[in-house]
Amino acid sequence: MHLKIAVLGGDGIGPEVLKQSVKCLQAVAETFGHNFTFTDGLVGAAAIKKTGSPLPDATLELCKKSDAILFGAIGALEYDNDPNARVRPEQGLLKLRKELDLFANIRPVKVFPILAPKSPLKEHIIKGTDFVIYRELLGGIYFNEKKLSEDGTKASDLCEYTEGEISRIAHMAFKAAKRRRKKLTLVDKANVLETSRLWRRVVTNIGESYPEVELNCLFIDNAAIQIILDPRQFDVILTENMFGDILNDQGSVVLGSIGLLPSASVGTKNAMFEPVHGSYPQAKGKNIANPVASILSVAMLLQHFGLFEEANAVVAAILKSFQKNIVTSDVMGSSKYGTNYVGDFIAENIVDSDDNLTMNDENIWLGKSTII
């Protein structure tokens, strides 16, 4: 297979972890006889500094012409410390999602048994956790009208959804639940918000077309508690933009490190794959960032194109790095290995994988989390 892949490193540790992802895709191409071409593009603070725009036209055009996008991270301290900045790195990501119609963000939260003791939660609570969050990505409070009074003392953000926006991601989530353990949980705030009441009405109606899938509804505050108390109860979680943003990061607490969570943002034509973590500018250039979330995003990319054996080979190599303690310090507490070494080890073990690892139960988790 030939794939054209846009590589948007962005800011902070983004380029560092993405470098390891490219290594792993090159290893997959070598091992399985594929042809992947990579083209770099500017985005975020790095793009603002060079072009004045967080998403230059050239980058957007590159993404539209590519088969897939690998994304690093965006954000820089100078913008975090300046709430009045007119142009912000995050605007580049939001515009990219909108222009490419990336309406569904998909984030699997799967606990590797070997890492369960390292979670801040008790092992008996998290062992066996395997759920995926479907977050609507183009509507709600992040994308609608925003106002600030002239004197700066009053502000508002409009939360708005249409039935069509809800319906298209709801069908995607129900189909995923049908392939998995046949349970879908809608997270909303229908006791307070009119948009949530619309979500509940639309999703409940759609649920009638999927009688084999059990539909439950939870308020966001209860859902946040339940993910910590009993994450194993969840299979597929469906929710709106802001609630999904919150719950996604909670998943990192279950795993013990935000450096272990991958994601995919997909639409009808385009797909982008990125780690959940942010730019972590304090770690930039120190060779300490965990590349696993970015490399797991590579596995999701391969799965998206039906390359399931290749995706499992990537996960098997990651598992081997866990077994041999070749990890960054955020995973095991202390480690002598850096970003580049961990990335090299995983890439090398895709090329020279052990047969007994490629069939390990921990390795086939992607097959349970099919995203399309």
TrEMBL record:
Cited SMART domains: Iso_dh (SM01329)
EC number(s) per entry: 1.1.1.85
GO-annotated molecular function: 3-isopropylmalate dehydrogenase activity; magnesium ion binding; NAD binding
The UniProt record lists the keyword Metal-binding: yes
Top-level class of the enzyme under EC nomenclature: oxidoreductase
Subunit organization: Homodimer.
Entry's family note: Belongs to the isocitrate and isopropylmalate dehydrogenases family. LeuB type 1 subfamily.
Keyword Manganese: yes
Protein name (record): 3-isopropylmalate dehydrogenase
UniProt GO BP: L-leucine biosynthetic process
Cofactor notes: Binds 1 Mg(2+) or Mn(2+) ion per subunit.
This protein's pathway: Amino-acid biosynthesis; L-leucine biosynthesis; L-leucine from 3-methyl-2-oxobutanoate: step 3/4
Entry keyword set: Amino-acid biosynthesis, Branched-chain amino acid biosynthesis, Leucine biosynthesis, Magnesium, Manganese, Metal-binding, NAD, Oxidoreductase
Organism: Kriegella aquimaris
